[in-house]
Records
---
Amino acid sequence: MAIQSATSEEGAIGTATDSRGRLVTSDGTPLRRALERANRRRKLTALALVAPLLAFILIFFAFPIAQMMWRSVDNPQIVNALPRTLVALEDWDGQGVPDEPVFAALHADMMEDLDRPRREQAIGPLGIRLNYELSAARSAISRTARSVPNFEEPYRDAFTDAHRLWGQPELWQIIKREGRPLTLSYYVAALDREYDADGNIVKRPENRQIYVSLFGRTLALSVAITFMTFILGFPIAYYLSTLPMRYANLLMIAVLLPFWTSLLVRTSAWIVLLQQQGVINNALVGMGFIGDDGRFSLIYNQTGTIIAMTHILLPFMVLPLYSVMRTIPPSYMRAAKSLGARPWTAFRRVYFPQTLPGIGAGGVLVFIISIGYYITPALVGGQSGRMISNEIARHIQQSLNWGLAAALGTMLLVGVLVLYWLYNRLVGADSLKLG
Amino acid sequence: MSSKLKLIGLSSAVSVLALSAAAQDPVSLTIVSWGGAYTASQQRAYHEPFMEANPHVTIINDDGSANALASLRAQAQAGNVTWDLVDMLPSDAQLACDEGIILQIDHDAMLAAAPDGTPASEDFLPGSLGECFIPQIVYSTVLTYRPGAFPDDAQPSSIADLFDVENFPGRRALQDRPGTNLEWALYADGVDPEDIYEVLSTPEGVDRAFAKLDTIKDHIIFWTEGAQAPQLLADGEVAFATGYNGRMFDAIEVEGMDADIIWDGQVVEWDGWVVPADGPNEELVMEYLYFATDTQRLADQAKFISYGPARASSAGLVGEHADLGIDMAPHMPTAPENYFAPIVLDNDFWVDYGDELRERFANWMLQ
Amino acid sequence: MSMPAYYTVKDKIWHYTFRVICYAIFFFLLAPILIMIPLSFNAQPFFTFTREMLTLNPDGYSLRWYRDFLGSESWMRSIRNSFSIGIAATIVSTTLGTLAALGLSRSEMPAKGLIMGILISPMIVPLIISAAGMFFFFSSINIAQTYLGVVLAHAALGTPFVVITVTATLVGFDQSLIRAAANLGASPTRTFFKITMPLILPGVVSGALFAFITSFDEIVVVLFVAGVEQRTIPREMWSGIREDISPTILAVATILVMISIALLTVVELLRRRGERLRGVTPG
């Protein structure tokens, strides 16, 4: 639009032609080039306006996330700690316990490490890394490291005497398999799988599988919450859209006040209401509906997560629905009815289909937000109401398995981005309405 | 203040400064701990006397201990260590020590000897010192029950009773982690306290522990935060709850909750200091540590919270609660009448097997 | 919703049932927030209405939790932090966001979709992931546990709102006004302040409000990036809820609800003004 009008403007000035018959501007430059230049300048101005924010977001937002994702495949510990051992292991066939040269290389690696300043020692991180793959590998490493200076040949016996794990092929298979700078093992673990003795990826024993079901639970909870917001949001959005603007704006406060109220406030409100000794249970006991020992467990479980999150996310469903419903002319319904449709049929066949964009927008929005939710499940979810975000946080802050946290986080992020892409296809990001 | 007085003040300040410029520069130490009543007890027993003796020092409390390991690692990787001293559990300390992000401690050289001259390494309770770890207190996870939930002639008295739903019906509140629960399951199943970790490091032992837990599965409520356990008991929500002995002491003695502690099978653990490597004020921190972990200071902390001092020589000095006037000695986990069947938490075991068992426990909780 | 005369009994029943359902849902939305207000005046440390409160006995009510709140140094610090961090983050995100929105709404802007996608991403990416990434990165450049770190993090989270609201006001913006001003000899700066700014101001202000409330309400990033010195109100509430939930939380919550009401009013006024200015008549 702007380009076209620019052309006409400049065209109006440049009526002269040059020797070759091309249109030129008043200072003699060919019109085409002048236009291109003007266009490029505009483009550059536009870019220059966007550049500061773009740079800011790339540096302080996108890069940190990319860096975090990198941790899910980054695997320096074994390569750093055991360079000689890895070379010696190249000839090992993966069966049984390796021969003396490998142990001699291990001894040399460990001795060299002991000479380094403490902060640069690679053995500690190596033990922690190997322990992710094999329990007790950490103490195998750290105990051996303490006695390594006293070891005498044959080293193989010295090591296997120092800790039983050195005599197990499993530990050596892990060292060989993970002895490269990049790894997939965090993703393998995040999918509840592991490597078997032959290096194939197989399912973990059932009693250690948690992440896939946690992803499943996160999805199920998000679906439930999205559905609940739809069930509760649709009637009030419809009701609001039928009211005259003045009343609608007034009632809209009921939707907007929660929207503008601190998340922590809303979460604590639900704790107050839902606790065993909280308002709801006390009221029910007080009115004699339930006995004092029959109080409901409404919180610190999935129920708590669903109730609190439905309340918190409901405005995100109502607002897009409402803005779509406002644009649906009531005459359509009237027309359908006057043509003989029963009210229910008219609603189902004529009105409802027109609200689908709003349902799509609100639904995807609520779903995207709930799938990555952290605070509310952490405070009211107990065990069964925990979601994948809580596990990611735990691995970052407590178990310190940052690689696994990054793998789980990357999977969550990819899921959300796919959803967002769908959302974009469905309704367009520009249509995100606020307030 | 008149200008003359000001002048005198100024000149004397200048002369003091001239005498010992470095010592008088105001310094602040950031000490990370658990917050709440625990930090308060440290404030009164350690920080306040230290600041009194060293007026130029200000101690800033940060209650980030729960996630200290992650922050410490991030700070170390960035080469920007802002914390001076961190209170953490020995298992976290072991990991941090393996990574080389906290200082190794030469206990005899860095810490005060007992008043009778016993070197620190012998005065601290056996097994409590770590390569990088200086214990302050002994705490324990204990089983607590509500007497009102059972008939007078059939009150529970042992860990085995926790697993006996027939004779001791009612819900049980357990912490949502494998530690303590697996130990108790084996203990109740007849394993000797000394052998628990040996059994638990075999797959059969783990199966055995989970099988025992299965027997009470339907009666369990899980708690996450330390404050929830006494709360659940106080609300009459459960008949039994496991919890930290200090929290339980507070709830029973201070808040007047009707509950009793079963000391049988108490799971004993330490808590203490670690010094971040390359911290901003290493020398001063060492001075603080020498002061704050001596016999008297450790005994003092027990005046404010019912955790036992980690030094043998402190035991005799434990007196009355500073505010309540209760004699604290019988409430210490280490009091002889309480310490008859302790299970000493094996941190090395939990660092090794923690990830695996946590996964299995998480899976089990949701089954 | 007026009821047409031709409604049958069944229609009428449905009509009223529907209204009851709707008001029940409005109740569900508002009640949890409003119920905290009276409870915050509870004289007892309970989260429930005591007998004295229900009989409106003045002894059942007290201001003790407000005194607790006002007397607590850590709460007061958290208020200072919340406002200073919020304001600083708002300034950064509003400035950068407004400029970017101006650029984005130019038709010459290349790769608009891609750039918009990147700029909006802080709103889409789950907070836990943003927080984790920032925790690692900010630690490595020495701004974790500093005010600067928290402000930059919150500014990043707040910019999408500014970009969206300002872009929205620019949709109805008549570009020929700028050309007219230029033709009449106004410098670009003068054009901006005399023509563009007044027109997009409602968008800028409501974007700034969104950015502020984003920072003011944000907790996940604070949990990861802030140190004890930078604790904000939500962070303090988080500790309060997890450690020992006392009605002090309700006093804080009541105050925050009041703030939200104030903010809501401002946004509503701005929206109306914006619609008037852009000639959009409320239907």
---
Amino acid sequence: MGQYVVRRLLQMVPVFIGATLLIFLMVHVMGDPIAGLCGDRQCDPATATRLRQEFGLDMPVWQQYLTYMGNVFTGDFGTAFNGQEVTELMSTAFPVTLRLTIVAILFEIVVGVTLGVLTGLRRGRPVDTGVLLLTLVVISVPTFVTGLLLQLLLGVEWGWIRPSVSPAAPFGELLLPGLVLATVSLAYVTRLTRTSIAENRRSDYVRTAVAKGLPRHRVVTRHLLRNSLIPVVTFLGADIGFLMGGAIVTERIFNIHGVGFQLYQGILRQNTQTVVGFVTVLVLVFLLCNLVVDLLYAVLDPRIRYA
Amino acid sequence: MRGATHAGRAVCAVVVALAATACGGGGDSAGAGGAVFSSSWTDPQNPLEPANTNEVQGGKVLSMIFRGLKQYDPKTGAAEDMLAEKIETPDSRTYTITLKDGWTFSNGEKVTARSFVDAWNYGASLKNNQKNAYFFSYIEGYDQVHPEQGEQRADTLSGLKVVDDRTFTVRLSQKFSGFPDTLGYNAFVPLPRAFYDDHAGWLAKPVGNGPYTVESYTKGSEMRLTKWDTYPGPDAAQNGGVTLKVYTDNNTAYTDLMAGNLDLVDDVPAQQLKNVRGDLGDRYLSTPAGIIQTLAFPHYDREWNTAGSVKVRKGLSRAIDREQITDTIFDKTRTPATDWTSPVLGKDGGYKAGLCGEWCRYDAAAAKKLIKEGGGLPGGQVKITYNADTGSHKLWVDAVCNSINNALDNDRACVGNPIGTFADFRSKSTTQKLSGPFRAGWQMDYPLTQNFLQPLYYTNASSNDGKFSSKEFDRLVDEANAETDPAKAVRMFQKAEEVVRDNMASIPLWYQNGSAGWSQRLSNVALNPFSVPVYHEIKVG
């Protein structure tokens, strides 16, 4: 087990270097960021030269990358063009996005798995067909449509909620954005759970458990659900990464100042430091989530062991 | 279950970590004090130093917390004395500036001649990386403080001299009669000692001498400004304060206005223009701002610098149906341009409607003829380059191309050439990498004809990206700058503008309006010529 974790952690190193290098090169290819700083006029050459020096843009790319990585390992993620440290941006953006992700993941787990179990146990009944149809609708409607529609209905027409989230972004205000962010994944979780449950229902160990005379809720939760959750957990693990980095649309609609906002602005302003910094952290989140998911397999299914 | 327990512990650790970070972020408190209102904002691109702020969002804040020597009248755009008691010059080159008595910064420090001179020296100095440094380039000694190459050779401008507490002199490197009128620009405001002594602290909570003071500033989220009760100036705030809220998407700001969570939106999204009258009724405003959109040309490119290319450019100009495009795409929030300046300058200020004449009127037959006479389009096709990330430029570039294609009966005469980001677009256009016409927007820095002409068309000027060059234009501008009589100067500038017209150095498209929408709580909302709301005059309740 310990060896396995160490091996996995070591595997992360090349993935981490490769991913950051790719992002670094991609941002670099977009061209000279200094030109965009002076609006519709040309930066005067002397100031532009000094700014390039200050941000290290006058060095060759490989050297820029090495310097950057060197700094990252000492915890220095550089400075954004507006003079703020990238670590400062991260410390405000990540907690907000994390809260949003938690809300979304909770929705996925609670609503998605419950609906999945419900439909899986009642295959072919009206509940099953109804939920299936609903998930189909949810999957086919893009997030920004659901987001804008709910925002308009609940926020403006009925006035139940504030259409935008305040800068502090407490959990209460993130309920709707979290739901919107979760909808598509929620539908997938429902479908995955349903299929898995329906399949395992006919397996030998379930029949044994029923034959032993165990109460129904115990059969479902301890035996059936636990074994059926493996594909769902895999999906959720990967989804955490997606939700954290891919919430750009939702964050824009509800004016949430999280990771998506910073990334979007960083890309528009071609701010290498911001973009690479945030993506680096996101890459780490992805890798760790994957590791945790793999470890969770062993919890859910004792037959899986890591040596 | 050996593995299982370990894994379980790992999960716990992650959960704890999640919970811990989730605790970050403070609570939200509603603004206290009845007459405070909220307004939409965008994160300023640069640090909030006066000489480093060159876009509207940062300028908004500066216009609330600072007052300079001159202040532009919100309605007429005329530069009127604010801190200046008098600005005198015998020769349009040496200016003696006397300050009014009684002005202080909100931290109690007196505003003296030194507050100005130090601030200007700071702004001009190369080592401070100020993006508006060129504003000080008229002052003598600028080439020492801010050389184009190499290290700076002096720390202060030799043209600035403090005479006494309330007087200082400015000597320019050339005659420039419009100089006093430029002094209303944000780059010229005075700065308190705290700006230099505790720079980081000042940036976190700027201190100025304007009608508002910064109560709190959370970068990237919001800024709370409150009325400065003992503000010594004549234009004290009519409300208790303003909360600027950062919005990533102006559509969300508009939705928030509709839901009653926001009081003022100063950038109504293009998609909402059709509904805005129905949504807000007379709580919507659209007035001309000092912004003109043009198509610039690569005069450095041989194909666009031939004897016939003037006719081709004129032909293209006549092939663009400006009326139709401003009506259908912009819902009349832009006005077809008939000169190269802006209506906000007013007739006396140098705006001359119809200066472009027939060359800006749509006429398909004439367009065809002109382009044929000029030797046809270079390469058989024009590519209009624009940045696709902001400002719905794609919409109008496609419309302009359609108009040209229809006029010339050629489906391939014009195509749009989008570039992903603004930064990349600017980097390509400022390094002369474009081979066809490109989008050029110009927002004035101060309401003078000079500002619409010299930076854009003077040989090697700072924003002359197309490298247009005309000896006659340069001569006329030099003469106009040296002219002490404003009315005469304006006439000279208009002559220079005629040179731009005769060469069709760029094709004027339309003047842009500023827009604002507000909630029922507010009244007396107006936009100044820089399309920034006149915050201090807004009344609440």
---
Amino acid sequence: MAKAAGVVLAGGRSSRMGSPKAALEWHGSTLLWCTVAIIGRATAGPVVVVRAPGQELPDLPPDTEVVEDPREGQGPVQGIAAGLAALADRADVAFVSSTDLPFLHPAFVRRVVRAAADGADVGLPVARGFRQPLAASYRTTLAPAAERLVRDGRLKPAFLFDQCTVATLDEAALHADPVLAALDPALDSVLNVNEPADYQAARARPAPEVTVQRFGVLADGHRGAEQVRAATVSEAAEAAGVTLGRHVAAALNGDQITRDGQTPLATGDTVFFLSADAGG
Amino acid sequence: MTAGGYFGQALVVDATSGSAAALPLPDEVLRAYLGGVGLGVWLLHRLAPAGVDALAPEAPLAFVFSPLVGTSLTTSAKFAVVAKSPLTGMLTDALASSHFAIAGKLTGNDAIVVRGARSELSVLLADGDGVRFEAAGDLAGLSAAETSSRLRERLGRGWRVGAIGPAGERGVRYATISHDGRHAGRGGLGAVLGAKRIKAVAVRAAERKVPPADPEAVLAAARDLRARSFGPATAKYRELGTLANLLAFNAISTLPTRNFQAASFEGASHLAAEQVAELRKVARNSCASCTIGCEHIYAARGGKKMRVEYENVFALGPMCGVSDPDAVLAASAYCDDLGIDTISAGGTIAWAMECVERGLIDAPWLRFGDADALLRVLAEIGARSGLGDLLADGSRRAAEQVGGGSAAFAPHVKGLEMPGYEPRSLHAMALGLAVNARGADHNRSGAYEADLSGEVDRLDGGSAHVTAAVETEDRAAVMDSMILCKFLRGVFTDPFAEWADLLSAVTGWDLTAAELRRTARRILLAKRLYNLREGWQPADDWLPERLLSEPLELASGRVAALTPDRLRTMIDGYYAARGLDGQGRPDPADLADLHLP
């Protein structure tokens, strides 16, 4: 079973946005936090943020690793090289993302990671009319090749693709995954925000629809599941009328357990609220 | 001078001759082991012959009290029963609660140890005047509850009784000792008492007091703890009881089902606390000196009242594939009547059901999900008749008899059947279960707390899980020795420091958190050393093969797998953290601190 991880490239200049995209507010945290956390959820592996030399980053989820581009302004291949190199001894495949994918869905990440894990060097989505090299999966063994390209001044991802096996995932291929087709039918996972208007439009969208269920003493007579709109575990807790804390934990989709209210949610998620005092 | 809260002696009873002698307990031993489980381990080192058969007359059985017993501290009326387990061949220590603890201690002893055996079924009576035995032939075959009731009628209500049921008399290796419906349940202590032909131990308080060193400080602490015991940390226990776990565990794939063939059960909602409480709950109760009141009393079919906990419902329900709440309540009540541990009973029966499915046992009537078969096989176990004679020895011995690869799915560690926590989806708990001295045990290792709190990724065991397992073992060692109920654990924010203050107020010692941490490690090391003496091997710190070779697919799409390599790495980390060598053996230099005889 291939070990998966994540790389988030945060070193872009955000020139069209006019302010650092990594730090843009998103449901109580930032776009960068949300992107890192979604990838962490989807891969269950380490996530590396690649920043420009000396770049100041907003708060990041616990255990996020940070590496620096050797030089500023060399484009995404340098960041890909740095991120893959940082993961080389711990993961086989990394989902590589830009900072600004506010609707990135874990099901999309898993589908794309699977493409590279199945034997290709790169799993490259082609969605919403474009190739998506910054929402793609890469084998970590590509790090040396990417570093060579940077040394040679060949800074576009296409040069990397020329040197390896690429599994192209068009929309039909992506929709062939029933989970992804159900949860992100429009492939909003690849929608990015480049300008203030994009950001405002993204913020205006309703939060994802998720299912919440309370157990034990938290249920307080409310049995069964309820549908709510919530972009984070905190929002889901508020909608369910519980408060996360020392004695209350949340289980995402029946596996990952957290008391971190900033954990981002995606459409179709289920959040169980349960007593953290589980003994007896 | 003996410290506050102690009498400074154990009463050692020779059942063969009917005599008793006081064993002085020096202050340094009491300070090193506190009481309860800790002092019990020391007593076993002191009094148990090496290599003794657990059911031999020479094997000691210790009822051990604690310095807090008799104080006004909430949940302090508890006692430990400690012996070599007939199920595991290693140390077992079980806790029970209520008036027996207070009356037993106020006989003037910090422990009552029984060795030898009677020639006929008897009752041991202990009070301030010493001990005596009475014939108990008329009590043969009775449940512990009925035995207690008859004895209190005969002796007077001042007497408190710990008794065995018919299973203990017949040597079922997971028989319990029960007091007032609460059980020293794990490891077969009832069989040990039964082998001594002792049906019950009755204790009566003498006119003796054992004042704490600083009564005002103890009273203030008692008021504070009492107030905290009404807070959110104990809400689950008060409002629904431990059965509240069942539906939540099912949702997160940690509910062992059909002998660990699955981790969620399609019939879970029928057995949920919320559902059963609506149908059958009749009252709530608490032990003596307890303000939590965790006991939820249910009416089984036919009206019989009984306590229900998560573990007995898990073991007799999902583990055996039974979803009928009336059947599970009836089976649980039947286990109480027989005097057997529900976890070991359920685990052993579930293993047998799978053996039947695989054609390894010829008992076509014994099928997963068949409630009538569950009750029938319990009766056979209690009577040691038919298939029950095999199953009365527990899943490890039964698998050795049946063979055919059935050991791979026998649900035990060191011979003790697994509790209701799925190790593949709780990796910190997996480690705790593997290395615990008592065997597969959820009360001496609460590592599931880390798994279920989100502090660690429960599906990705590593060094953080080792740290969590060590910490929860240390906490349990102190709580089980001083003794406070672990349902109170959530109210402590700085537990070792707070416990040091409590114990200092009672004993007069100037204890610190650091000393209590050393005490915890000493107790755990003494347990390990006892097991080593009795034949423990490195391979005993391990989990059943099934759990290491059959991954679980979760509803989320993630796979819950616990590989042998991962478990080995965690165990190695645990050994290193405990100062043990790579084979799990202690450094001889550490033994000097153990104050062992």
---
Amino acid sequence: MIESLASLLMVTVVLVLGPYVVAVLDRLVATPTGAMAGDVWLGPLSRAAWLLTQQANATEAPDWQAWRLSPALYLALAAVGLAVVPWSPTLIATDLVTSVVLWGSVEALATVVIFLQGWSANAVLPLIGAYRYVALGLSYILISMFVLIGVALPAESLQWTQVVTAQESLWNVIRQPLGLPLFLVVGLGLTFWGPLNLADSTDLAGGTSAEVSGPSRLAWELARAVMLVAFSAIAATAFLGGWLGPWLPGPVWVLLKTLAVLALLLWLGHRLPRVAPERCVTLMWVVLLPLSFVDLIWAGVLALWA
Amino acid sequence: MELLTLVIILSLALGAGLLIQWLPQRHQPIPPYSQRAPFLGGGTPDTHAWNRYHIRYYPMTLLLIAFEMEMMFMYPWAVVFVEKGMMAVMEMGMFLAILSVGIVYAWREGVFRWQ
């Protein structure tokens, strides 16, 4: 009971503080490139306050329910992702036997929710962003599944806590060297961040959120940031040994590893050029998907040999 | 208990996402129709939003479904993998090889190309 309440509190704290951490880290990472102006620590807060007080935009005949629901649903999906992250062997909100599958379903449903955001504005540019996202989503989801199955093989289980326990001798990031890089590509796709920002890109004047302003825009950006945090926490669990580590208590290790993955993703987001949408699908299916097969076979042979 | 916590977290996040939008907007008037034209980079809306847009991911979707069917087989496979040993590797290797031929065929047919 106390463990459940503690884990509930943990998820809530990450939900509230996560977006702020993402915004600050993003600004810190961007500072050398000069891409972002404004105060590092207060900038995110003043932007959030400005969005809250701004007038909300409307189009001629939007699908109102879907338009308001899609940011909330995206946030809820990210929260489900956070719920399956084990902070320690016992401090975990939802320790299902199939929690790896649950995370997989979060990734799959994200495509639906992001399409909904672009579709409900009833305007051309958001709809094109949504179409593009579906193509991207259909491409990255398989890579993610194969990489995650590779992680489940040595654990002989689809439970995140078992996946972490199986890494006691050696972390998966070393044991399956292809896994984490491929999974990071999935993370950039899932949050359409940086090089894989095809849905909300500037060449579509903001894509799926081109017509969104004010509080709804804030909700959408919050949800994206929380999804990035949830993804980083899952990556830390799957590849960096989760709570395992000397001296410090488990939850602190999970936090540190999550922050490291998050910083890496944000850095990649600023350093890599954006992939052209028409090349992205071929790249995913013809190059990255076969690489994920290699990762799976590698993981399988190693699991038998060990 | 596990599922109860999950449902609580799900509804908390969903509620928060809706409240953030509803609370500040509840007294705001909806902009008049003259202001509600879609943003088209300054252009006028001559066509419907559902105008033809040539994205041909239908064959790609079929390919995805083939792999998704394999995933259903793969989840239980991952759990008993070490127990079954080399046989499991061979089985999945054959399955993946057959599906990979599908990828090569789709690639040749230009399924992944947008034009």
